Amino acid sequence: MEATLGLEIIEVVEQAAIASARLMGKGDKNEADRVAVEAMRERMNKIHMRGRIVIGEGERDEAPMLYIGEEVGICTREDAKEYCNPEELVEIDIAVDPCEGTNLCAYGQPGSMAVLAVSEKGGLFAAPDFYMKKLAAPPAAKDKVDINKSATENLKILSECLDRSIDELVVVVMKRERHDDLIKEIREAGARVQLISDGDVGAAINCGFTGTNIHALMGIGAAPEGVISAAALRCLGAHFQGQLIYDPAIVRTKEWANKTKEENLERLKEAGITDPDKVYDANELASGENVLFAGTGITTGNVMQGVRFFKGGARTQTLVISSQSKTARFVDTIHMPGNPKYVQLH
After folding, report:
1. What is the C-alpha to C-alpha distance for residues 156 and 297, in angstroms, rounded to an integer?
2. CA-to-CA distance for 107 and 153, rounded, in angstroms?
3. DSSP annotation of 268
4. What is the pLDDT of residues 60-83, one digit of tens each?
């Protein structure tokens, strides 16, 4: 899969990042997301594959493109028999977030990315549009920290695994009312907190690399992004756990203000989830034999540079992580003037 799709998957996230970066700092997160979606879908549909979106922009009635269940790739066309040999056909599941951290892009803040994860058919957990409690940590702490333990306990374990004092640890938490007690506990335990407004996929990936000065991600975020994070961290050999959250009283968001715990449990049941309290690890959320993650920086973060424009072209940096080759590659690309693959915003 990596050999067949690698370069083209890179171009998918590159084109989405370039399109979105043109709107960086303009304060319009919806438009930044829309152009990224269009660019990502356009490039996907030029790949010799049969792909199925398992995590995307929403249900079909809610999203015109890259909706959950949408089929993408040349081999999904009505005339596919002319182009696709069934014996050579690559069938994959795809999880996408064309502009991860829309607010970060809209307001010119660090860490926005165009990201996706791919695996063979059935290899990615089709997470419903719910919230998820998450715990990400470096490879040295894999299977030693535990989402069921308190933040204080996990910080002690991290301290031992990383051979650092607790006051040297940095934990990323999304700035939300629901995290007030978590933030207080982390600080009282002696660790430092880095608050983010958006974009916890990037924060999770930071845990997989040394030198980022990020040692854990804790708290509740969107479940679909949790699957993408799990795919990346599984490939890196790092720790990730996720647990679906269905109680509106815990989430404390406006969109769930009129929902009930019982209604959400019924929605999970309809989605085929019979154990709503199950804790998933990275190998369950990204269970495929071969998993590939790709992300291109839109704005500069700890791991990747953002898109940099020059007259007629652009420069991008993409991270590609593979469970197959057990590699993490940084691809630095110059999109030169006159390149027909280079997407211009009209």
Report:
1. 33
2. 36
3. H
4. 767 889 999 999 998 888 877 777
**SS3 state at 162:** helix
Could you give the CA distance from residue 197 to residue 184 in angstroms, rounded to a whole number?
17
Domains along the sequence of the chain with CATH = 2-124+288-335 (3.30.540.10), 131-285 (3.40.190.90)
Measured distance CA(285)–CA(191) in Å, rounded: 29
- Give the predicted TM-score (pTM) of the model: 0.93
Mean pLDDT of the region 198-222: 96
| Residue 165 pLDDT greater than 80, yes or no | yes
User: Which is nearest to 345 in space by CA: 104, 32, 27, 30?
Assistant: 32
Pairing of strands 170-174, 216-222: parallel
CA-CA distance, 28 to 92, in Å (whole number)? 32
Rounded to whole angstroms, how far apart are CA atoms 172 and 136? Answer: 10
By CB atoms closer than 10 A (0-12, 13-18, 19+), residue 162 is middle
Q: In degrees to the nearest 10, what's the CA dihedral of 35, 38, 41, 47?
A: -90
**Cβ contact 48:90 at 8 Å:** yes
Flag the least confident range among 61-65, 308-312, 326-330.
61-65
Residues 6+ apart with CB under 8 A from 316: 14, 17, 18, 296, 297, 305, 307, 308, 332, 333, 335
pLDDT of residue 346 exceeding 50: no
Q: Give the whole-angstrom CA distance, residue 240 versus residue 233.
A: 7
Pairing of strands 113-120, 91-100: antiparallel
The tokens of 313 are what? 């072209």
